[in-house]
Amino acid sequence: MAKITLSDLRHSYMPNPSNDEDWALKYLDLSWDDGGAYALLGPSGCGKTTLLNIISGLLVPSHGRILFDENDVTALAPDERRIAQVFQFPVVYDTMTVFDNLAFPLRNRGMAEPEVKARVNEIAEMTDLTPMLKQRASGLTADGKQKISLGRGLVRTDVNAILFDEPLTVIDPHLKWQLRSKLKELHQRVANTMIYVTHDQTEALTFADKVVVMNVGEVVQVGTPVELFEKPQHTFVGHFIGSPGMNVLACDINNGKAFLAGTEMKTSNKADSKSGKTEIGIRPEFISFADEGLPVEVTRVSDAGRFSVVDVMHKDLAIKLLVNEGENIPSEGAKIAMKPEQSRIYADGWLIEEASA
Amino acid sequence: MSLELKEISKRIDGQTHIYPTSMTLEPGSFNVLLGTTLSGKTTLMQLMAGLEKPTSGQLFFNGVDVTNTKVQNRNVSMVYQQFINYPNFNVFDNIASPLRVAGLPDAEIKSRVGRFAELLRLSPMLQRKPSELSGGQQQRIAIARSLVKDSELILLDEPLANLDFKLREELRDELPKLFAEKNCVVVYATTEPVEALLFGGYTAALHEGRVTQFGSTGSIYREPDDLISAKVFSEPPINTANVKKQGAEFVLANTIRWKAPDALAGLPDATYIMGLRPHLVGPQAHGKQSVQIEGEVLIAELSGSESILHFTFDDNTWVSLAHGVSTAKIGEHSTFHADVSDAFYFHADGKRIRA
């Protein structure tokens, strides 16, 4: 187990990167505490796989260092890093028994058989594989096989970290929660550093204590699930986390006040006029129909069962809001109110920090 | 056009894949086939398209029997989960291919492709090859191709399943708009109840080769005929538990009691099955008729804006769905509040007890 430090990391797949787009990873400086549960979350192409490969040693970064505790491992090969990895698709030896699959990494490293047995039994117990230890792996269902992969990831006691790369992709939707729960429970029991890579917000937020959100080669926010929802540091995070995502509405700043299509809006932070491209971010759940507010035209109502997603237009601004089942949606003369404490100004995508009052 | 299935069934090697099914899809309608993997969605679509021949029954397009008409002569398009494009054609030629096959003049092809590329936001990349595009863009090409030729029947088999979460959300938003102006019959297969709800239109709940209920999407969700349809249309899964009717009350786990709805007052004393959707169970008292359930948390799944808590109560796993980000820990003892005023009740055989 180790603390992992990524120091001043940059990576490009090109020999001579010149402009910003040439970098798959633009700049990264982070540290992950020993024993923490982390997630790397972002859309395809955001750089998370590049970063994963740098940590596991498949890729040497163009710039910067990786430290496990105080040791620089930047130049070390994957097998010298003592990292366990669990992949999208279960990697099992079909002809071997479940026991032999779990024992494989230990026997490979020459562990004595009595110790192998004790350790495999312990891990099988944790992963609910005990009743199947003598069965061939080939007879197991997809989630059973993925449990073997998980178990093999956990079986070694000498690993610095365990990396998970979208490990629940092949699992039936209605079984996912059980494996999610298993993973969390395992983390609590083994207290190993775990890093979970995914494009799925539910996977990331459910597993991790801290989530690293990435977009186009850079980290846009590191935060707890509550922080990512309540106070997105970047419009991308607001859009990506939550369904539907945060409204991002172009606004004008005049004398320190924010205007949406000419109407002054109260916000929880302030911007000055030289802030660059400015936008107001507000989540659909913090907007409601009201007697006073922005006049809007309702363009679409999508019934999601327990609530409706309502699309409205104010002049040329498209806005989404959520209305609970059973609540009234006005057909004419509709006005909407936005909670000022949940409305924030972003400049060039980034949250403008709230000035201390 | 309209599509009518009359007692259509499919058996393969002595195994029934689709039990005799009758339904009529109206002109211009959006129809969702909702069911888990292997419930028969793909088979039913292939029967509708003519890619599979039914073992029994008949299929009518606009009242004309097409049961024995080849798929090439039926004017249908299909979009699959694994998007299929011609890798050596650029985006324009991919979208244009069915029009070229139909022998349309170039000017017409150009204007139609341009229009659908615009709708699907593919205009800036018409000259590029599919392999240079993201998965979402590639699937949009396949969708554009299915729309461009004015098919009378468009079948989409889990077209968003392989896409990133956010892309799925975006396309879910766009798809109904694309079909709104068309008069074709659209059939869309999915495993996700939320997709069915957001698309609106009509939904057929499918379970083990049977359409258990077909009707307007809202009515299937709010008024399921039976326990299976209620289960098919609930994600996270609907909570079910045995409840005893005792006089004017329902009793859960011998300890939790509430007054039965007036309409069920006359129901004889017996054991019934209650179905309670997860959003009716939450951390705070809510709704018209709230009862308390003490549980032990198995996990809190966080989706960003909502939390799904799985917990055990009375040797049963329960699910709560509430707005906000939960900080509940595994193993924690917690009090949940269930609004039973919107509960469903079923007979032991699964038939819904209607008020």
What would you note in describing this structure?
- The complex is a heterodimer of chains A (357) and B (355).
- Chain A is built from 8 helices and 21 strands.
- With 357 residues, chain A is of the alpha+beta class.
- In chain A, the strands form 5 sheets. A 6-stranded mixed β-sheet of chain A has the order 6-7-8-3-9-10, sandwiched between helices. In chain A, strands 2-1-4-5 form a 4-stranded antiparallel β-sheet, with helices on one face.
- In chain A, strand 17 and strand 18 form a beta hairpin.
- The longest helix of chain A is centred in the middle third of the chain and has 18 residues, at 173-190.
- The mean pLDDT of chain A is 92.
- In chain B, the strands form 4 sheets. Chain B has a 6-stranded mixed β-sheet with strand order 6-7-8-3-9-10, with helices on both faces. In chain B, strands 13-12-11-14-20 form a 5-stranded antiparallel β-sheet, with no helix packed on it. Chain B has a 5-stranded antiparallel β-sheet with strand order 15-19-16-17-18, with no helix packed on it.
- Chain B has helices spanning 41-49, 91-101, 106-119, 135-148, 165-180, 193-199, 217-222, 227-232; strands at 3-12, 15-25, 30-34, 56-61, 64-65, 76-79, 153-157, 185-190, 202-207, 210-216, 239-246, 249-252, 256-259, 271-276, 281-282, 290-302, 306-313, 316-323, 333-339, 344-346.
- Helix content of chain B is 23%, strand content 35%.
- With 355 residues, chain B is α+β, with helices and mostly antiparallel strands.
- In chain B, strand 7 (153-157), helix 5 and strand 8 (185-190) form a beta-alpha-beta unit.
Assembly classification: heterodimer
Extended strand count of chain A: 21
Number of helices of chain A: 8
User: What's the tally of helices of chain B?
Assistant: 8
How big a fraction of the residues of chain B is strand?
Answer: 35-45%
Beta percentage of chain A is 25-35%
Poorly predicted segments of chain B: none
Biggest sheet descriptor of chain A: 6 strands, mixed
Average pLDDT reading of chain A: 92
- The main sheet of chain A orders its strands as 6-7-8-3-9-10
C-alpha-based Rg of chain B, rounded: 24 Å
